[in-house]
Design brief:
Layout lengths: L16 H23 L1 H15 L9 E7 L2 H15 L4 E7 L5 H9 L8 E4 L6 H8 L3 E5 L5 H10 L3 E4 L5 H13 L6 E5 L2 H10 L4 E4 L4 H9 L4 H9 L7 E7 L1 H4 L6 H4 L3 E6 L4 H13 L3 E4 L12 E4 L6 H4 L5 E4 L11 H4 L5 E3 L8 H8 L3 E3 L9 H12 L3 H11 L5 H16 L1
Parallel strand pairs: 1-2, 1-4, 2-3, 4-5, 5-6, 6-7, 8-9, 8-12, 9-11, 10-11, 12-13, 13-14
Length: 443
């Protein structure tokens, strides 16, 4: 097992490391002066407590290898989670789990409570820029694993200084990775040994050009395994809803993780033009968000009915089932016939993996499509159609044409898509084997 290197920054082999030290101290001062304002008082306090816990790990019994898993937010955490579960089942390993985003805090702790084996050494917020060095040195980790775009110059420098390999799952030549390298080069910092797992062969060229000394392997996103695992455990609430609304006309279509900006895309005569029954699962179920969505549905000719009502009301007219509950959207996709994935007319389209696993034909808005490699793959195989933005002057009749054609996709085509998507299963185990081999080679 590696031991933490000394706390010396200036060395003969790296004459410009004083720049890295100045960079680190700048962020420490920034945190002291503006930390509470920038990240919020509660988050700042939790981060400081977490840093103390991480640095205290230097005094622990170092009989086992330590892996640090770090995710920017919820989506990246989902990518890492199958790997976290595999590592937790290995009695020779210890793990550290961190997230950057406040939105992932509860999700991280909920998932950690259900891990097999011993409890992680630490579960919580990651250090802020300026504090990575102390935490990485004290933890004595053997490998650092993150996902996609999360990259901090000081974090990379600390890993390189401690000779800890960096593993990035779902990688492509994103701007954050490129900027981390540029800043480190400018500061005379150390770029760690990097192992990229890229979803698409086309991504490997850009990564190889930007990081010629790295190792790149083409492999599917572990999120496919995560979604598949959930599909094996049907939610009782989904079966209840199917029984309650069984008499509503088919096909059933759903707008999943819906925002008001998604529903605005539907014309005012949507209720008369969409076949079957429309279900809407809002991204947020607070009173304000639900009220906005109900108004938009009524403006488009629907009569919304909420699933949480104790006595289910099925008014006359074009019913839209408004799912004002949380926690089972992934499972609800299994009983749908087509899906409009929300978020694409707001900040970013949400997960397309969950509905695609069931072979559903998918629609979605254009925003954020570049963030997810599976978007291009699903487009190529004809399962996903991305609606153009307002700037491209898409006519409302074209939206209806797409929805109507996707709602008529037959069961055989859906089976073909589902079979294609199941080929991504097992990526977690394959990636984990590579990580284990890297651990052996680093000992």
């Amino acid at each position: 097992m590696k031991s933490a290197q000394s706390d010396t920054f200036l060395s003969e082999s790296h004459p410009f490391t004083w720049r890295m030290e100045a960079y680190r101290k700048f962020f420490k001062v920034l945190k002291i002066c503006l930390g509470r304002l920038l990240v919020g008082a509660s988050r700042w306090s939790e981060t400081e407590i977490g840093l103390q816990k991480l640095t205290s790990l230097s005094g622990r019994d170092k009989g086992r290898e330590v892996l640090w898993f770090h995710a920017a937010s919820v989506g990246e955490l989902e990518s890492l989670w199958p790997l976290v579960e595999l590592s937790a089942m290995d009695g020779n390993l210890e793990i550290i789990l961190t997230v950057f985003s406040g939105s992932a805090w509860n999700h991280l702790h909920r998932m950690a409570r259900h891990l097999p084996g011993r409890s992680p050494l630490y579960v919580g917020y990651s250090p802020l820029e300026g504090d990575w060095t102390e935490a990485i040195r004290a933890s004595g980790i053997s490998i650092f694993v993150t996902a996609k775009y999360e990259a901090w110059p000081e974090m990379w420098n600390a890993l390189g200084d401690a000779r800890v390999p960096l593993v990035i799952v779902g990688a492509k030549a994103r701007s954050s990775l490129l900027w981390a390298k540029r800043i480190l080069t400018l500061l005379g910092g150390k770029i760690p040994s990097i192992l990229f797992f890229s979803f698409d062969l086309d991504n490997s060229g850009g990564l190889a050009a930007a990081f010629p000394d790295s190792e790149i392997q083409v492999e599917s996103d572990p999120r496919w395994d995560r979604v598949y695992q959930r599909s094996l455990n049907p939610q009782p609430r989904v079966a209840e809803l199917v029984r309650s609304y069984a008499d509503l006309p088919k096909p059933w279509g759903v707008i999943g993780s819906a925002w008001s900006s998604d529903l605005v895309q539907l014309p005012t005569n949507a209720a008369e033009s969409i076949r079957g029954t429309l279900w809407v699962v809002p991204h947020k179920v607070d009173p304000k968000s639900l009220s906005e969505i109900e108004i938009l549905l009524r403006e488009r000719g629907f009569t919304p009915t909420r699933t949480s009502d104790e006595n289910i009301i099925k008014p006359a007219g074009n019913i839209a089932v408004l799912v004002d509950e949380m926690g089972f959207l992934a499972e609800l996709y299994s009983v749908m016939d087509w899906c409009f994935v929300g978020g694409g007319f707001g900040s970013s389209i949400h997960s397309t993996i969950e509905p695609s696993l069931y072979g559903l034909p998918l629609l979605g808005g254009p925003h954020g499509r570049e963030k997810f490699d599976e978007i291009l793959m699903l487009e190529k195989q004809g399962q996903l159609a991305i609606l153009p933005s307002k700037d491209e002057r898409l006519s409302r009749s074209n939206i209806f044409h797409l929805i109507d054609s996707f709602s008529r996709v037959g069961i055989e085509q859906r089976k073909q898509w589902a079979a294609l998507n199941l080929r991504h299963r097992g990526a977690s185990v394959r990636i984990w084997r590579v990580i284990l081999n890297r651990l052996k080679n680093e000992r």
